[in-house]
Amino acid sequence: AGRKRISEASMSTVSALDNSYSSALGSALQSSSGGSEMDKNSFLMLLVTQFKYQDPLNPMEDKEFVAQLAQFNALEQSMQTNENLENLLAAQEKQTTISASSYLGREVSARGYGVSVEDGRVSKIEYASSEEIAKGQANIIDGNSNVVATVDLGRLAAGSIGEVKWDGTYSNGSVAADGVYTVAIVAWNANGDRITDIDTSVTGTVGAVSYYNGEHYLRLTDGRTVLLSNVREIVDPNAATADSGTITVTE
Prior knowledge:
By secondary structure, this protein is an alpha+beta fold. The chain has helices at about 1-30, 40-50, 60-100; strands spanning about 105-110, 115-120, 120, 125-130, 135-140, 145-150, 160-165, 180-190, 195, 200-210, 215-220, 225, 230-235, 245-250.
């Protein structure tokens, strides 16, 4: 009978410990960061809670303790690795910004589709395609998404470079207002099929460098903006000739 009473008491103690442990475990989880992933502090809190409420008649085995410490060590190393990667990325972004400042005052050619009008002067924009263009047109679109002019492009051999020659006037004959416009090219091959791989390139002088949403941009002096990663060619304005001052960027 005595043994039975001890067994029942032990079971009661274990049950009470289980309940306490479950309650403490829930509190520990609720006081963590609230995310789906466990951070370093949450792991330590759970580990300490487990030690505090473990069954004294059945303590944690050494191998279980070692396994949990190994998990904690792996978690800490992972956090340190993430921190190092973040620092490395920040350093790279800073270095890229510093390097981009060397573009200031230089003329660049970059992938883009913007054209500017300034005092009646229209900026240069070129286009090319790996497929022969039988006919095409360039639609000039203003800031309100309205097509204000259309330029016929004519034929262009595959791999050749053509230029959109807009005279800076609207379709109604009025002079275009100063500003930045978008050029949308539509072209067809000899079979009448639509060509989709048309590439456009713009040129201009860099007036500012900016960083936004993980990307570096070059703002041209006429108000257009191009991605730094889209730059194809850099021209030194102080060079004696265009050929000696040209730097081609390999894509």
